[in-house]
Structures are given as C-alpha cells and as structure tokens.
Amino acid sequence: MRKKFFFLFVVNLFSLSAFSLPILTESSDGHGLLATIYPDHENPKKFYFFPNTGSLEKDESGYPKFGMSYWIPDANETIGGYFSGIFRLGVSHDLSQSIELHKKSGHFVAVMPVQESHLYFMENREGQRIMTDLYKEISVPPFSGRAEDSIGISASLTRSGSRMLSSILRNGGNGADLNYCYEIKGVSPIFDAKIRLNYHKVFTHFIAKADGGILWWKWSIRSEMQKLVESGDIQIEVNGGNANQYDYIMALADRMILKFMTPILDNRQGSTSGRFSLNYNSTTEDRETSFELKQREIISREYCVALGIGELKEFPWLIVKVD
Question: Which end of the chain is more exposed for a tag (fewer CB within 10 A), N or C?
Fold first, then answer.
C-alpha cells in the first residue's frame, strides 16, 4: 500500500499594528536604491516595507523543507502524486540596505499590514488556471487575513502532472509558477487635479480589449488606463498636491472598477480572487465630462511576490518516485 499525503505551503510573516496607514505611492523614499519604502500618513518617523522575495525555508541541516512523492497510478486511479513545502518571505539586498539606512536615520520601520492575500499556482496573466490536466485538485485558503498568519495549500497531481512537475523541479523550477499576492490598505498621496474623459470611450476601449471573456487584474486595468491617458482620451490637469501621474492613474482605475467591473468569486468561502469581469450592462453617455480629485483617499493596492523553487535542482533526493 502506497503512503500518500496532503501538503501545506506555509508562508510565515510578521507585522506590527494595523492602526496606522502607509501612504501608498510609487515615489517613496528608498534612498536611491532599487527599493520602495512607504511613509506613515501621520508619523514622519515611521515607515513601512513589504518583503519582496520568497524562497523555501531550510531545516537545521540547510535542506529545503520540501518533499514530493509520485508514482505510476493503477488503472482506476487518477492521482499520481503529492508534494509539500514551507516557504518564507524575505527582502532583497537593496531593500535590506534601504531599511538599515532608515533605521540609522532614527526612523521606525515596520512590515506593512496586510488586508487580504491569495496564493496562485500556475495561472496565466488573465488569472485563468493553465495546464489543468497536470493537477487533479488544488485547495487554497481565501486569504491569510493578517500578515503574521500562515498560508496553506493542498494539491493532488495527475499522472502527467507528477511526471512533468518532478522534471521541472529537478531542472530549476521554470514553468511552475507560485505567487503570493496580497492586498494592502493605506492612504493616497495628496490629490489636486481636474480629470476630463468620455466614459463611453473608456467603456468601448475595455470592450475591445475584453474580446473572448478576458478576466482583469487591477494591474491590467491600470495598464489600459495608462494607454488612455497617453492617447489623450483621459486628460489629467494637475493643480497641486504631491501625487504623481501614476498615482492618478491608479485612482482612476479604482473608479473604473466601481463603474464597469464585477469582482470574480473563486468558490473559496465566497472570497474574491483579485480579478474582475467587465459588466456589459453598464450604461454610459457619449459625451465629455469632468470631475476633481482632491485631498487624500483611503485606497487598496495589490502586489505579488514570486516564491522561488529553483534551488530544488540541488536537492534531487527530495523528489521521490514511490514503487
């Protein structure tokens, strides 16, 4: 009788109080390094960061905490393998240096509080699961809730999936995408601008891009908003404040989501999956309109960290074929 097991991917992360809010802008102070540090909206000496790397945790011997077992299934079996691993988030060299520079300046630096997070395995840029013939079932929790909570995932592989994944892992992990995506709540920089646009043109633009039932991530919506600004279909007249153009584009994308998009549920306790579909029943008028963006706003932003598994090629004995 073969020994079979479920597995957990666990991400351990720690944060401090979620009562203060970071200013979510891409022009934050990283001391000239390839790093983003976010200031607090009230305390000028408090800053936030979020881990930007991910890798397998090591045991006392320096081996990755990972294991995979696979076998040739019997004629009446559809499952051919399972695997398990524990991951840890970390920071890049530049981000680590930036944090140290802030601390030397007398600043308090904390991990950014997480509002919601998801783990995605082998999905395309539209958020659709790919290579579904490689795995039988994947159960992912809807969100970790807090940054310090663990994230677990369990899965079973098909015959072809177990063979392919074992080969992928032995050769550097390319082709097995595992991403930890999280949502942060904070405040915007100070807005002061007049926006001119034609909602009908914007809606028509998204209809043209959504041919084939594409699902949208917030980043892909912002990418299309950027194109509309560059083409002049949306005009931003900045009168003051400290927000940059990208901050305005993100704020506009948030408004387009509320006006034209519907969140997609992922059947995990009714949670959202971070993706949106276009609401074709939206009504718009074909005329130019304008409105003002002023002061700060409470906003949410999404980021993703790739959880690396390439190092497993150095530990082939962790991938076991069961007789």
Answer: N
Question: How many whole angstroms separate alpha carbon 79 and alpha carbon 299?
Answer: 43
3-state SS assignment for residue 164:
helix
25, exposed or middle or buried, with CB in 10 Å at 0-12, 13-18, 19+?
buried
Domain edges within the chain: 9-186+303-321, 189-295
Taking the model in full, what pTM does it have? 0.67
Q: pLDDT per position in the chain (323 positions), as tens?
A: 443 333 333 444 434 344 578 888 765 565 566 788 888 888 889 998 888 888 888 899 999 988 889 888 887 778 888 888 888 888 888 888 988 999 999 999 888 877 666 666 655 544 555 556 666 776 655 554 455 555 656 678 888 888 888 888 888 766 566 777 777 888 888 889 999 999 999 999 988 887 656 778 777 888 899 999 999 999 999 998 888 888 888 888 888 888 888 887 554 433 344 678 888 888 788 888 999 888 788 888 777 888 888 888 899 999 998 87
Compute the distance between CA of residue 107 and CA of residue 99 in angstroms, rounded to an integer. 9
Measured N-to-C along each axis, helices 245-260 and 218-231 cross at an angle, to the nearest 10 degrees, of 110
Give a three-class secondary structure readout of 79-132: CCEEEEEEEEEECCHHHHHHHHHHHHCCCEEEECCCCEEEEEECECCCCCECCH
Rounded distance between C-alpha atoms, residue 26 and residue 247, angstroms: 8
